[in-house]
Design goal:
about 55% helix, Rossmann fold, Dehydroquinate synthase-like, alpha domain, globular, alpha/beta
Length: about 400
């Protein structure tokens, strides 16, 4: 029986304020012409021009693909891949949120291997050749994609979010500069911050967790819980931004090695079918799923409760676990996270797609890592609970009655 675990991370991680400047020297070690995969927001902020300047200083030629204007699809991948080949590049740099990084991961593998990106889902096709060197530079504190071997790409033919995990998708270098996240609007800060918290929580609750991932997940939860409101309320709070960037990085390393669970499995179909940003869809589901899990992971949820208070003065783990769930609800409320109904999702359409959504959630494999493994019907029921869910803690709801 196997009693060992794997831990994978980028070969090089450069972290801290102004670390963006290191993209030139890191690129020079790995190639001569870089394809920068980014989006129009990064272009408008001048971050792409800064990246080109740092690269050109080291003699690196550049070309740019800025077509990632939504969650990544197979069309984004094919467009960026075509540019990579047409421009004779030998290096990939992603600059932006998780969508840009996930697109770049797919391109880095396909550029040296063959086939359609969907063929790599579920391990049906393995990357046999080394991927093209990929330097990932996140500009939000949330997805953790810079430190994972997972890419999530939407199949444009059937709107399925394809969760693809193989070691080849791990970026070779991650450059995490918290100063790049200062420009993030409040809504993005909230969405990506709760996304990172969900990564840490699910890594800690996962059936595949182990001591190394637990250490990172606990640290990430503490950093995020203590700083997310500060970053949300004051985007120029550099100390909070730094803590959130570190928390996101740690959560990314935790979940890529321990896997995520039911929240992510249910979240992907919502994003694919209703175009809800990934962090928001995670937040919409997180409290209800924690309630569903509670009896099967009381000790771990109690640890989260103690992180929220910074104290251990609970009469029992059950009390601490209940407190944790109420605090997650309160956090979602404070960050103005809407439920599915308030987001504007049509109820009739939602009901008509429940069977597909629950099937796609199970197909992703993530629910199997959950402390309480759900049936498809239980997932359908959870979706219905989440549609009009109240993020008010139980005590607040009782006071209103």
């Amino acid at each position: 029986m196997e009693n060992y675990s794997f831990f994978r991370a980028p070969g090089t991680i450069v972290y801290g304020g102004n670390s963006f400047e290191r993209v030139g020297p890191e690129a020079a070690l790995r190639g001569k012409k870089a394809l920068i995969i980014s989006d129009s927001i990064m272009q408008g902020l001048g971050n792409i021009d800064s990246c080109k300047k740092y690269l050109q200083k080291e003699g690196i030629e550049t070309t740019v693909y800025v077509g990632v204007n939504s969650e990544p699809t197979d069309k984004h991948v094919s467009g960026a891949l075509e540019k990579y080949h047409n421009e004779s590049c030998d290096l990939i740099i992603s600059l932006g949120g998780g969508s840009c990084i996930d697109t770049a991961k797919a391109v880095s593998v396909l550029a040296s291997n063959s086939g359609y990106i969907g063929e790599y889902m579920g391990g049906k096709k393995k990357a046999s050749a080394m991927p093209v060197p990929h330097i990932a530079i996140p500009t939000t504190a949330g997805t953790g994609s810079e430190a994972t071997d997972v890419t999530v790409i939407i199949n444009s033919q059937n709107d399925e979010k394809m969760m693809i995990k193989q070691p080849a998708f791990m970026p070779e270098v991650a450059i995490v500069d918290s100063l790049l996240s200062v420009s993030s609007p409040k809504a993005v800060t909230a969405a990506t911050g709760v996304d990172a918290l969900t990564h840490a929580i699910e890594a800690y609750l996962s059936r595949k967790s182990h001591p190394l991932t637990d250490t990172l997940a606990l640290s990430a939860m503490k950093l995020i819980v203590q700083n997310i409101r500060r970053a949300y309320n004051n985007g120029n709070d550099l100390q909070a931004r730094e803590a959130m960037s570190l928390g996101s990085l740690e959560a990314g390393m935790a979940f890529t090695n321990a896997s995520v669970a039911l929240v992510h499995g249910m979240s992907r179909p919502i994003g694919a079918l209703f175009h809800v940003p990934h962090g928001i869809s995670n937040a919409m589901l997180l409290p209800a799923v924690l309630e569903f899990n509670k009896e099967n992971c009381m000790t771990q949820l109690a640890d989260l409760g103690r992180i929220f208070t910074g104290e251990t003065e609970f009469s029992s783990d059950q009390e601490a676990a209940s407190f944790a769930i109420d605090e997650v609800k309160k956090l979602c409320s404070d960050l103005n996270i809407p439920n599915l109904k308030n987001y504007g999702i049509d109820h009739e359409k939602f009901e008509s797609l429940l069977e597909k959504m629950s099937s796609d959630a199970l197909k992703s494999g993530s629910p199997a890592n959950n402390p309480r493994v759900p049936t498809q019907q239980e997932i359908v029921s959870l979706y219905r609970v989440c549609y009009n869910y109240s993020f008010l803690p139980q005590a607040s709801q009782a006071n209103m009655q």
